[in-house]
Amino acid sequence: MPLTFAPPTSDATPLYAITPEGLEDWLATQPDSIKAWIGSAGFKASLGAVVLLPDTEGGVSGTVVGLGSAKTRARSRFVLAASAKSLPEGTYALANDLADLDLETEALGWLLAGYAFDRYAKASGASARLVCPEGLKPARIEAIAAGEVLTRDLINTPANDMGPDQLEAATHSLADQFGATVSVTKGADLIEQNFPMIHAVGRAASQAPRLLDMRWGGTGPTLTLVGKGVCFDTGGLNLKPGASMGLMKKDMGGAATVLGLAHMIMALKLPLKLRVLIPAVENSVSADAFRPGDILTSRKGLTVEINNTDAEGRLVLADALALAAEENPDQLISMATLTGAARVAVGPDLSPYYTDDTAMAAALNEAAQAVADPVWRMPFWEPYEKMIEPGIADLDNAPKGGFAGSITAALFLRRFAEGQNYTHFDIYGWNPTAAPARSKGGVGMGARAILAALPKILDI
């Protein structure tokens, strides 16, 4: 169901969002009956606390929700949304200012609190609808929410219903919605069109590997997004243990995230030329699966020694990045659920990213803080370059030793985007614990930060 704001109406229930620090001042403006009611409820304005205010006829005249202490707010993203699921179904209108909070972010959080993945079983998010607060642009916030919903739905869908075929269909559907075009290079054509590593990784699967290439927009600066579309990752012949394979439906989280971001860009009609490249494969085991010890030649001509078939994402991204670099876009950004090392480094909440562009980093960091989409800059650490040079080939896809796994993967990718304004995100794409506006499961990471930074980094 689309996540949209309720239309303005005089019947909307007033919603007072109060901090513990501001509770006393707010109560001072209320009649004695409300003071007594709040006191009897033991309301302290803790995060997510709700008190319904009665009218004289036994109905609800308003509601008061808690935003939590300053410390709690600093540790949370969408504090207004924390109360959304506790409210009765109905329409609510914010009745006071949200001091020190970004209103657009909080309104977006309320919409996202309504999300539930219900394709296979009944599920529901918050049913309380919010009138878009005054001064905001509802269509903008709804477009961002819709992009996030697309990302979550794609990641949450299991591989039996979200293989390369279905990921291609989802890309076509998005393109049709906004008048974009899609070209597809598939199966043996990948060899003929010089995408050998995409083919090698995906050739053992029942659904053919492919490269999806979507374009939109006719004027403005050029932005190319590359998303890892490994629809399921067994690890290949270096087979993952069962516990590590359980979440591998999310290994196309990079593709899902760039498609969600593309939705936002196109829905908001940003004045730029957009290209989205998705190598869509499954890393499976079969007689013709690629092997440890194989040496592959990439689109760029660099040779790669395969020391672990479970380090396949960087291989398919490498061919796509090489293609992207041939057009020399103004900004080139890749997004991938690439390494477990990134999760060890920063956990599931932060989106680690790599860039040599200090202006890009400054814009991303500022935007991420503004829209509650946290990112963390990681280093392209030059001394580690030798770790990805095995001697027998130009590059090693899985350096031994286990040190700096996310950094060496990013350095590997940079070899294929050489000479570009290039940024790489090593995201997780999964929320392991439910939080306000962030249900357990697939989640977009970094997309809203990029969206907010685009006007500055592309001068649009």
TrEMBL record:
Entry's transmembrane regions: none
One Pfam family in the UniProt entry: Peptidase_M17
Keyword Protease set for record: yes
Keyword Transmembrane: no
Superkingdom of this protein's organism: Bacteria
Keywords: Aminopeptidase, Hydrolase, Manganese, Protease
SUPFAM superfamilies (UniProt xref): Zn-dependent exopeptidases (SSF53187)
Domain Cytosol aminopeptidase: 308-315
One MF term in the entry's GO annotations: aminopeptidase activity
Family from the record: Belongs to the peptidase M17 family.
Name under which the protein is recorded: Leucyl aminopeptidase family protein
